Amino acid sequence: MEAWTALIQILDATIRVSVPLLLACLAGLYSERAGVFDIGLEGKMLAGAFVGAAAAATAASAAFPGAAWLGLCAAIMISVFLALVHGFASITNRGNQIVSGVAINFIAAGSTIILGQAWFRQGGRTPALSADHRFNAIEIGTLRSYVDSFTLAFPGFPAGAAGESSFVWLARGIWVVVAYPFQLLFGTLGYLLAWVLLGVDAVVQYIPFVSDVFRELILGHSLLAYFAFTMVPFTWWVLYRTRFGLRLRAVGENPGAVDTAGISVPWLRYRAVICTGLLTGVAGTYLAVSQNAGFVKDMTAGKGFIALAALIFAKWKPVPAMFACLLFGFLEALSIRYQGLAWPGIGRVPVQFINALPFILTVILLAGFIGKAIPPRAGGVPYVKER
Amino acid sequence: MAEAAIELIGIDKSFGPVRANRDIHLEVPRGTIHGIIGENGAGKSTLMSILYGFYQADSGEIKVGGKPTAIKSPNDAIAVGIGMVHQHFMLVENFTVIENVILGAEGEALLNTSIAKARSELHRLEKEYGLEVDPDAVIEELPVGLQQRVEILKALYRGAEILILDEPTGVLTPAEADHLFRILRQLKEQGKTIVLITHKLREIMAITDNVSVMRQGTMVATRATARTTVEELAELMVGRRVLLRVEKGPARPGDVKLDVSGLTVKDSRGVTMVDGVSFNVRAGEIVGIAGVAGNGQSELLEAISGIRKAVAGKVLLDGSPVDVSGLTDPGDLRDRGLAHVPEDRHHVGLVLPFEENENSILGYHDEDQYVNGPFLDIPAILKSAESQIEKYDIRPPNPRLKTANFSGGNQQKIVLAREMEQDPGVLIVGQPTRGVDVGAIEFIHKRLIAMRDAGKAVLLVSVELDEIRSLSDRILVMFAGRVVGERGPDATEGELGLLMAGVEEKEAAE
């Protein structure tokens, strides 16, 4: 039973650490399938985490409702902005995509610490976010209270605090008007979904093991985690079943074919890098506003690069990308759990070695076990009309 | 005269200081096949790219169907019914045929309906024009002839009434080219207008109704094909009289310089490409290897020149064996007097971003004349490059120019000059005139004959049957990896063609 619990816990941790990998990996997929290599996933994620946490913290201190959502929007905005910078350098000005990506990583790593210190004076951190201002895990309790509290009359309209400025009051009003239709639609859908899940729980809670899987692995994650895993089939659908996906794949293989077909190569590639920015923004938000209670310097810790490795490992395909990210997530979860543990026959293994394990395995996997990974043929090459 | 499908009036186009097109006037009557001929760099492709909206003309007017039309992008060209088949196919190689056909003309945001629509439309085009191709085949698995058909289908699917083909036969086998011409005639009968860009005179004579000749950016003449001759066109193209067939005396063969026996070579997939080939080349003769591309000629050349390992067989160079089954250092072979002009000058023969003088010593860069202790002797290299440039009439005569900026013919001359000037005993030449202009072809052919007359052994591989026939003293025909016949220089085209198609072999087996 103890082994079972341990397994469930490791798998649960696997999913949690896989989410930012998966988001970054899918982000890279959009850009690289369109022929723009993006080594700057790490930097965009980091900038997204910082700006997301900073915006959420600022909104929280002004008692603004939906601070987490505001953080998400801000994270996406900065991340898309950086993606457009990368696009401007590598699409419009035909610069070297690796150099541009590395530059974005450096800018993000340095400026987040400096700005964090200048704005919040907490050693480069952002102020800790309370549970109300984060994307929290959705548990059985959450579902139940959601069902209990749900009314079609717009719930959660926040009461104004005494003495708030007219600006905050106005912002609150705009927020409500803009959000209301969405709240109504998603609220209703969420309500129905919650009912279904509660029903499932009522059934499975008497079945051993299955109920653990349901409560620990399927439930118990934040909204952004569900978003990440939903993006896998969605990305597949976009790539293989829509006009945009067809053109995206084509421009990564042979931009000449796209150009002669009367489609603008730059505009198509810009749209691809915008998709990348959107997803890295969500990944950053997940790190700083969901998994953690704020931004910590260098909190991405190489995830952007592991995501790139996973992308190559998955041969630039969405569903294999998910499995690759889960594999790398699993390795990381193992290393977190077993650091400092004495192994039979070996003795105590240094923490550093355990921490390095996922990276070592990445190298081994990439070096020998994936066969030939053929990147998009036009990847990394700026498009110049031939003379 | 029939109504003009396209009319170009006073088209001018410059790229920086280079005037690619100057004051071009062209009229293409509806329902005809119109050839545009000229040497590489004469401005044919630029002119057609302007018509297709890839570039904008600096000045001039385009009329399509009698109406002045502004063509600012390929989209505009497609909208007025102009389709283009590019020299380098604009296909996504790992897409299926149908995906390539609909790309850019999908209609709807979701693919399901557009694919279904394209499928029935492809079926109709297939019936109407005999353009058969499996819509679900992946492009990279199709032979080039079929890939080209997909390009034509792409244009027709977009409703093209005017079809521009840029050097369409450069990559095709003779049989595929014939098939293409049948398709083009059929398209013409259906009322389509076809513009054919080429530098091959034979094609112009075979299929076009009218022909326009371009030279150095200008349109020098337009003729009805029936009322002109190959000689006249060649002269118009080059600006001087051209010898289309080289003159040569009889060969005086000497000792055997290169002796190949039982050579067997497999490609990277393990498929046998050369299957027990034996032959020899004597001093003072040219042995030509004919065959449709892909029948093992490339692998044979690579094995003899030490680039590819052979699995069996022997090669004797000047009577002493060459280790063909191991990794022979091509440099050793060079030292032993075997020079190699590779088939693919871009990937094997030259480093395009290098300066001309650097390429002119590639492979010989460690010889005493070019080095000064551990350093390259730059003045000596430049001097030798300049003498090669003069001797081989390489233009522009600038040894410091980047090799990529030379035309195809001049690049080929750089390779030939490098290999021939080392005075090798044996010269192996692959596709010496692929993508080379008429004028340069004449020059290269003369040089090869001169090598022969100087007592060198020359092994020539070419897919151009004319070239093989006019240069070789003995002709070997390769089919499916084996030498299926040997003929003298007086063999007819039909006879060799049958051998190349493997016909005689089959009959013998029956």
Question: Helical proportion of chain B?
Answer: 25-40%
CATH topology title of the largest domain in chain B: Rossmann fold
Biggest sheet of chain A: strands side by side, in what order? Answer: 1-2
Tally the beta strands of chain A.
2
Mean pLDDT over the residues of chain A: 87
Distance between the termini of chain B: 55 Å
CATH architecture grouping of the largest domain in chain B:
3-Layer(aba) Sandwich
Spell out the helices and strands of chain A N to C: HHHHHHHHHHHHHEEH
What is the number of E strands of chain B? 22
- Specify Rg of chain B, calculated over alpha carbons: 25 Å
Q: Hey, which two chains have the biggest interface?
A: A-B, 24 and 33 residues
- N- and C-termini, Cα separation of chain A: 70 Å
Number of continuous helical runs of chain A: 14
Overall morphology of chain B: globular
Q: What global shape of chain A is seen? A: globular
For this entry, give a set of tags.
heterodimer, A: 387 residues, mainly alpha, 2 domains, two-stranded antiparallel ribbon, B: 510 residues, alpha/beta, Rossmann fold, six-stranded mixed sheet, globular
What does this structure look like?
The complex is a heterodimer of chains A (387) and B (510). Chain A has 14 helices and 2 strands. With 387 residues, chain A is mainly α. Chain A has 2 domains: 2-136 and 222-366, ABC transporter involved in vitamin B12 uptake, BtuC (Orthogonal Bundle), CATH 1.10.3470; 138-220, no CATH class. Chain A has a two-stranded antiparallel ribbon. In chain A, helix 1 (2-33) crosses helix 7, helix 1 crosses helix 8 (223-241) and helix 2 crosses helix 12 (303-313). The model of chain A is unreliable at 151-156 (pLDDT under 50).
